[in-house]
Specification:
The structure is a single chain. The protein is α+β, with helices and mostly antiparallel strands and 490 residues long. It is built from 19 helices and 10 strands. The strands form 4 sheets. It has a 4-stranded mixed sheet with strand order 1-2-8-5. Helix 1 runs parallel beside helix 9, helix 13 crosses helix 16 and helix 14 packs antiparallel against helix 16. The longest helix is centred in the middle third of the chain and has 32 residues. The chain is globular and about 65 Å long. It catalyses: an organic molecule + reduced [NADPH--hemoprotein reductase] + O2 = an alcohol + oxidized [NADPH--hemoprotein reductase] + H2O + H(+).
């Protein structure tokens, strides 16, 4: 109830504010659209869909101004500008513009950190976790989880009633195993203690949306009331990480998981950036925040990609048949002893995944906050410090200028001979540039392993998929209520 009252107060203040700011973008020669946050609060759709509406309504414009809370926001469409924001002028656009409480310990991770020096040092130290060599050494973990997932589905006769939840169970369990390893006594890795936590932190809800809305409307009030996005899970999650680190310090055997990396960082002592001299202590709390980032960034997005892929495969039986043939061939050649190299052989599955993320990008919009006034090159448009830049990924991916017949599910767009035709910076499922998703490789292996094992054992009943709208999420694009029906192939 407190959230609702606070938001109503902020909305009233915002209406007064916007009365005096109604010409903010028009004064710069840019068309101004209605306030995005108001539409989001009162609608039952994702913010990515709202951005797409604006993108389409102002189809002749290269820039559309609006407000995100009390912050001026500029929706950009031209790939030249997108390249500058995400890569070319990263120094001026490194900030995501997401408000977090400084006391929210779990927000102190590479996904949310806005302090450039702090983000740069932590990202550098975490990068070795996501090299091809490291993921190859971790593959046994993900492959075991994928096998266990098939057993889990076999033992749940009602799985077709909530297929998104089943996939979420898999992605949560595989992320947990990649962080903490697999205990030798674990019968099935799907029995994860983190499932409830990850669902609550990432699924759209009144409380979650209210917090993000209030943070955008009034960061001062958000921090004054000491609101935290993830405060509810601090004791639980940090306690688990501390306990695991303590127990593993005396182990000699390497498990090739994230905890091994944490222990190595703590052995090395204070983390230091030689270029700037900036230092961070590798405390249990700091490392727990990075582990938490894996759950926030990896569980929901990977489950969403798997979910949309299976929904589209059910609707496109010719594509499904071709994919079955590829999976069966690879599994038969390796005698169902799947290796990292075998996953690489699943090229058509890669194409299906890429097209899924084109049609349904897991993060439907990306935002950056300008940290120093500059000019966007395409239209020579000035951007002021604190202006938010919105890159409407969902709208870009459905723009027929970049993807002809955009509503058609067509994996051939990503065939080796066609990939080079895709306009650079028009396809952004993982972002681009220096803040591109650090876990891209891990996510692909995780999703491919899960889909490969599932489609080796099951096929899909034919079913049309034509969504009218998606879940009302502030970040993601998903349709958690849609279902598909699995049919055993045994």
């Amino acid at each position: 109830m407190l959230f609702v009252v606070l938001i109503l107060i902020c909305l009233l203040a915002a209406l007064i504010y916007f009365k005096y700011q109604s010409e903010y973008w028009k004064n710069r020669g840019i068309v101004q659209a209605p306030v995005v946050l108001f539409k989001f609060i009162w609608s039952k759709r994702s913010i990515a869909e709202i951005y797409k509406d604006i993108y389409d309504d102002y189809h002749k414009e290269s820039y559309v101004g609006t407000f995100l809370g009390l912050k001026p926001a500029l929706i950009i469409k031209n790939v030249q500008d997108i390249q500058v924001v995400m890569q070319g002028n990263f120094e001026n656009f490194h900030n995501r513009g997401i408000i977090t409480n400084p006391n929210d310990l779990l927000s102190d991770n590479v996904l949310f950190i806005e302090d450039y020096r702090r983000w740069k040092l932590l990202r550098h130290k975490l990068s070795p976790v996501f090299t091809s060599m490291k993921i190859k050494s971790m593959f046994y973990i993900m492959e075991r989880c994928a096998r266990d997932f098939v057993k889990f589905v076999n033992n749940k006769p009602d799985v077709s009633e909530n297929t998104f939840n089943a996939l979420y169970t898999y992605t949560t369990a595989s992320i947990a195993a990649s962080i903490f390893g697999i205990d030798t006594h674990t019968e099935n890795t799907m029995n994860s203690p983190f499932l409830k936590m990850t669902r609550e932190t990432t699924e759209p809800s009144l409380a979650n949306n209210a917090k993000f809305s209030l943070a955008s409307l009034s960061p001062t009030l958000f921090n004054f009331f000491n609101l935290k996005q993830f405060g509810k899970y601090e004791d639980f999650f940090i306690g688990i990480v501390k306990n695991v680190l303590k127990n593993r310090r005396n182990e000699e055997q390497k498990r090739n998981d994230f905890v091994d990396t944490c222990l190595e960082l703590q052995k090395q002592g204070t983390m230091r950036d030689p270029a700037t001299g900036y230092e961070i202590e590798a405390s249990d709390e700091i490392l727990a925040a990075q582990a938490f980032f894996f759950f926030v960034a990896g569980t929901d997005t990977s489950a969403t990609v798997m979910h949309f892929a299976l929904l589209e495969l059910a609707a496109n039986q010719d594509i499904l048949k071709r994919l079955h043939n590829e999976i069966d061939k690879v599994f038969e050649e390796c005698n169902e002893q799947l290796t990292y190299e075998d996953i690489d052989k699943l090229e058509y599955l890669d194409m299906v995944m890429s097209e899924t993320m084109r049609k349904y990008p897991p993060i439907g919009a990306i935002q950056r906050c300008c940290t120093k006034s500059t000019v966007l090159p395409f239209g020579q448009v000035p951007v002021h410090t604190r202006d938010v830049i919105v890159i409407p990924v969902f709208a870009l991916h459905r723009d027929e200028r970049y993807f002809p017949n955009p509503n058609k599910f067509d994996p051939e767009r990503f065939a080796p001979e066609n990939v080079s035709k895709i306009v650079k910076f028009s396809y952004l499922p993982f972002g681009e540039g220096n803040r591109m998703c650090i876990g891209t490789r891990l996510a692909r292996v995780q999703v491919k392993s899960g889909l490969a094992w599932l489609l080796r054992r099951f096929t899909l009943k034919e079913h049309k998929y034509e969504p009218e709208s998606f879940d009302p999420s502030f970040f993601s694009l998903k349709d958690s209520k849609a279902n598909f029906e699995l049919i055993s192939r045994n």
